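Support request, please re-run this one:
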Amino acid sequence: MRVISGTARGLSLTSPLGEDTRPTLDRVKEALFSMLTPYIRGGAVLDLFAGSGALGIEALSRGADRAVFIDSAKAAENAVRANLEKARLAEKAEVLRTDAMSFLSSRRESFSLIFLDPPYGSGLYEKALAMIIQKHMLAPDGIIAVEWDAEVHEPCFPAELERFRDRRYGRVHITLLKGRSEE
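Re-run finished. Output below.
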C-alpha cells in the first residue's frame, strides 16, 4: 500500500495489525482518486473508519488543506499517526480514536471530501450518511466517497444526496455522492 500521487508520492504506508482493517487496494485507490481529482482543491477531508489513513493521506498529498482521521481501534490510530509522520503531513491532520457515530453526533464542522468505508455488512453506512446530512457536515460543493462490498449489501443512499458516479472493481464498489442542487 502506497501513496499514489502528490507530495508524498511513492511512500509505503503501514497497515494496522489485526483482522479489523481492510485496506483499500492500490488499484481501487488509484481509480477512486482519478474520479476525485477535479474535486480536491484545498478544503477539509474526513476519513471515517480510517484504518491506515491511506485515503485521507492521499487527499492531503494531493492538496487538501487538512484532514480528520477517525477510527475506534488503537492499532488504526497508531498506524495513521505513523503514516502521517512518514508522509510529513502530521501538522495538517487531527487523529481521533473514537467511535465514528460519536464523532459525527458531537462535531460541528463541514468537510469538502468525506471518505466512508465502514466494516462491510455493519449497517453503519446509512446511519453515518443520515448523521452527516442532519449535522450539515458536507460542504456545499462537497463529495462523499463510499466504498462498499457489492456481494454483501448495497447501502441505501438518502434522497438528500445525489449518486453521480459508480465504479465496480471485483467485489469493491465505489459510489460518489454530492448534495442535491436546489433548482
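The mean pLDDT is 89. The radius of gyration is 15 Å.
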